């Protein structure tokens, strides 16, 4: 069995969802793909970590993590099979498990986003055949908070009638709007609304056409079209209307909410796509940092240098295309641009969220206007039903865009979300935990067509996957290959001979 | 996971996830190919295109076992197997090559990894493959007694096999089947059964609720 090839069609750096989907797509097309990742796990920013990995990431110092890697290396060199590796840092509290098999019952998603049941990502999963090996479960409810109380987001005419979320006067208007959404067909003008030109009319005007008041348009724009701020109001109505249609169609598929989430957490997706890619001959090397990208005299990629995952000796492979996530270019202002900061808290709870009818999973949006902010706070909740934690525990994520970085206290911006979880004023139960992270968001400076280095975008603030991943996958594919990505549905078993 | 399905009162059917582990080129895929299709290819390239196969065996007149067999797709080469690979595995075949002493060291490391990370009651079998090459005694690098002693100590089933001649291949999988707890009920993870019947079916048009999965 040989070692690395001399040349690859594409080298993919990072194993986040975007990178792994691309890897699977290229593999299926017969391209020779090499994937490397500096982490010891699949998924990069979109990984699911077990409790020990969480503890190392959030509670250990850089120094402790470095020592742990050195220890593992030393142990390997001794080829010792019996010695149990002592740990360089503390173990998680015993209530979360005391040994690997217990820590492994946790699959904590770093970016806990939901999939839209009728969305593009779901479609990609289905078409590539990946869904044969992933179980997707529907999320129990979709809520929006008004005056401190969560309400179910109404998405049908019936629900518009019964929902106490909107005033009596608004019910008819909301019904008419939802009727329009349900019936809308692009090529059938009888389903269109008079005076509404999706490419010219702004969404603000569109709401007026349907006589929807400020609050009704607020919850539609934020809890159905899923905008994190109000800048969409003055743009053409097409995108928000399409997003609302997607929400309503996704809702109609399984009934309780428009969202679905994989059993064992989001990390399943990059893992399964990587497996698909490997089945097609793709090569994977974790624990392998990118050392250098090599360029030819025209400034185009000619190769990639990295330490061999087993021997640690320097390896150079030739390639003409590189796809990478932005975390491999930190500090390189020619390659990536900082576009914002999020704060996200992953909370281990022992109870469901008040006001959600004990839902075992939910999305709750606190619109910015309700709490005097410009950006919404997103809460997502999953539980042991999804095999992401042991029975009796719940995993909640609270996130928002940091609006006031100079104040030096970004945690405070999540406070309304913590209150919703029963964790206000720093309250935390014995068997509860908070992992808080400030996340920097990056986008590529150039589109990659000049040097053939195609950099993906960071995952955004929302708790759903529509807006970023699939668009980014399609976009990178088009720039790299020069034509639109068309995923053909696989009728046969993709991995059975 | 085990899906006990009683078709008639006296018939038993159970399905188990089996994973293959071991160093590259010890013959993992060849063992599976011999077991599932009764084929052997002398010049088989490293695993491409096949990583998931199933095979059903009748243990006795009333008991049928279906193995859902996962090959590594080569991801073990740079120690890059995803946790999803051995998550919920009911049984594992850890393979070494009797003509390569170092492959037994690798096999021991995999056994240790499985015992640390996988299901606590996973059934593990150690298979010393390429037994056909032992017809030339100078080629053998791992003595049967040595591997057997290790297997006994570690609580593993043990066979020396040849994917080429089929020797002990069927015996290996049958021994695993006999050791699996057939009557084990309840969700031990795995396919939609572990989702308590709440898994959604994306193939259906709308509001299709799937009850488990007949994979």
Automatic annotation (TrEMBL), chain A:
Annotated stretches, region: Disordered: 69-93
Name the Gene Ontology molecular function terms of this record. Answer: Rab GDP-dissociation inhibitor activity
Name the GO cellular-component terms: cytoplasm
**Protein's GO biological process:** protein transport; small GTPase-mediated signal transduction; vesicle-mediated transport
Pfam families in the cross-refs: GDI
Q: Where is the composition biased (Basic and acidic residues)?
A: 69-81
Q: Into which family does the record put it? A: Belongs to the Rab GDI family.
- Quote the protein name from its UniProt record: Rab GDP dissociation inhibitor
From TrEMBL, chain B:
Please provide the record's keywords in A-Z order: Cell membrane, GTP-binding, Lipoprotein, Membrane, Nucleotide-binding, Prenylation, Protein transport, Transport
Against Pfam families, the record matches this protein to: Ras
Chain spans, region Disordered: 184-215
Principal cellular location given in the protein's record: membrane
GO MF annotation terms:
GTP binding; GTPase activity
Got a GO cellular component term for this one? plasma membrane
Its domain of life reads: Eukaryota
- Which stretches are tagged as biased composition: Gly residues? 187-199
Q: Which CDD domains match?
A: Rab5_related
Q: What is the phylogenetic placement of the source species in the record?
A: Eukaryota, Fungi, Dikarya, Ascomycota, Pezizomycotina
Compartments annotated for it: namely: Cell membrane
BP-aspect Gene Ontology terms = protein transport; vesicle organization; vesicle-mediated transport
Known InterPro entries for this protein? Answer: P-loop_NTPase, Small_GTP-bd, Small_GTPase
Q: Which family does it belong to?
A: Belongs to the small GTPase superfamily. Rab family.
Which SMART domains does the UniProt entry name for this protein? RAB, RAN, RAS, RHO
Q: Under which name does UniProt file this protein?
A: Ras-domain-containing protein
What does the record say about its membrane topology? Answer: Lipid-anchor
């Amino acid at each position: 069995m040989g070692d690395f090839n001399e040349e690859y069609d594409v080298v993919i750096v990072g194993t986040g969802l975007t990178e792994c989907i691309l890897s699977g797509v290229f593999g299926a097309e017969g391209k020779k793909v090499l994937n490397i990742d500096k982490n010891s796990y699949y998924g990069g920013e979109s990984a699911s970590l077990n409790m020990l990995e969480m503890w190392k990431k959030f509670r250990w110092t850089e120094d402790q993590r470095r020592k742990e890697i050195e220890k593992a290396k030393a142990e390997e060199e001794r080829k010792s099979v019996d010695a149990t590796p002592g740990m360089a840092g503390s173990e998680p509290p015993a209530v979360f498990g005391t040994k690997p098999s217990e820590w492994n019952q946790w699959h904590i998603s770093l970016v806990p986003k939901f999939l839209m049941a009728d969305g593009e990502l779901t479609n990609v999963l289905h078409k590539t055949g990946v869904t044969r090996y992933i179980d997707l479960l529907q999320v129990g409810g979709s809520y929006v908070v008004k005056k401190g109380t969560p309400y179910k987001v109404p998405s049908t005419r019936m629900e518009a009638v019964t929902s106490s979320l909107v005033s009596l006067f608004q019910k008819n208007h909301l019904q008419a709007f939802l009727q329009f959404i349900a019936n809308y067909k692009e090529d059938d003008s009888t389903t269109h609304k008079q005076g509404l030109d999706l490419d010219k009319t702004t969404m603000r005007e569109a709401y007026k056409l349907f006589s929807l008041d400020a609050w009704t348009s607020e919850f539609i724009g934020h809890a159905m079209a899923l905008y994190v701020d109000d800048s969409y109001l003055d743009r053409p109505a097409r995108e928000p209307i399409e997003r609302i249609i997607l929400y309503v169609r996704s809702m109609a598929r399984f009934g309780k909410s428009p969202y679905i989430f994989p059993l064992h957490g989001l990390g399943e997706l990059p893992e399964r796509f990587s497996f698909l890619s490997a089945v097609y001959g793709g090569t994977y090397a974790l624990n392998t940092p990118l050392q250098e990208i090599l360029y030819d005299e025209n400034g185009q990629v000619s190769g990639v240098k990295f330490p061999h995952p087993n021997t640690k000796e320097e390896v150079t492979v030739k390639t003409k295309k590189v796809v990478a996530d932005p975390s491999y270019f930190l500090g390189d202002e020619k390659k990536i641009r900082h576009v914002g900061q999020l704060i996200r808290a992953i909370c281990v709870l022992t109870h469901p969220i008040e006001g959600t009818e004990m839902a075992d999973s939910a999305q709750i949006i606190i619109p910015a206007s309700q709490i005097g902010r410009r950006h919404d706070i997103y809460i997502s909740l999953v539980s042991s039903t999804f095999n992401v934690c042991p029975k009796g525990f719940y995993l909640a994520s609270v996130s928002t865009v940091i609006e006031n970085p100079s104040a030096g206290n970004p945690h405070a911006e999540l406070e309304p979300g913590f209150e919703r979880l029963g964790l206000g004023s720093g309250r935390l139960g014995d068997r509860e935990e908070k992992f808080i992270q400030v996340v920097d968001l990056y986008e590529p400076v150039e589109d990659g067509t000049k040097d053939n280095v195609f950099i993906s975008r960071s995952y955004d603030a929302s708790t759903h996957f529509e807006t970023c991943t699939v668009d980014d996958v399609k976009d990178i594919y088009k720039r790299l290959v020069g034509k639109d990505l068309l995923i053909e549905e696989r009728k046969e078993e993709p991995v059975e001979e | 996971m085990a899906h006990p399905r009683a078709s008639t009162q006296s018939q038993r059917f159970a399905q188990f996830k089996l994973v293959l582990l071991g160093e590259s080129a010890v013959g993992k895929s060849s063992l599976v190919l011999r077991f599932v299709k009764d084929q052997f290819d002398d010049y088989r390239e490293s695993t491409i295109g096949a990583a998931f196969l199933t095979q059903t065996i009748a243990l006795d007149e009333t008991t049928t076992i279906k193995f859902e067999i996962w090959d590594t797709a080569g991801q073990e080469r740079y120690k890059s197997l995803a946790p999803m690979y051995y998550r919920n595995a009911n049984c594992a075949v850890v393979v070494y090559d009797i003509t390569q002493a170092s492959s037994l060291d690798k096999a021991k490391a995999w056994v240790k990894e499985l015992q640390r990370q996988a299901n606590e009651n996973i059934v593990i079998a150690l298979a010393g493959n390429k037994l056909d090459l032992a017809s030339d005694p100078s080629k053998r690098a791992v003595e049967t007694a040595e591997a057997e002693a290790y297997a006994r100590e570690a609580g593993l089933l043990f066979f020396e096999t040849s994917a080429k001649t089929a020797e002990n291949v069927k015996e290996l999988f049958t021994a695993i089947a006999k050791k699996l707890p057939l009557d084990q009920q309840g969700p031990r993870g795995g396919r939609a059964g572990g989702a308590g019947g709440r898994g959604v079916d994306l193939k259906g048009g709308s509001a299709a609720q799937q009850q488990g999965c007949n994979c």
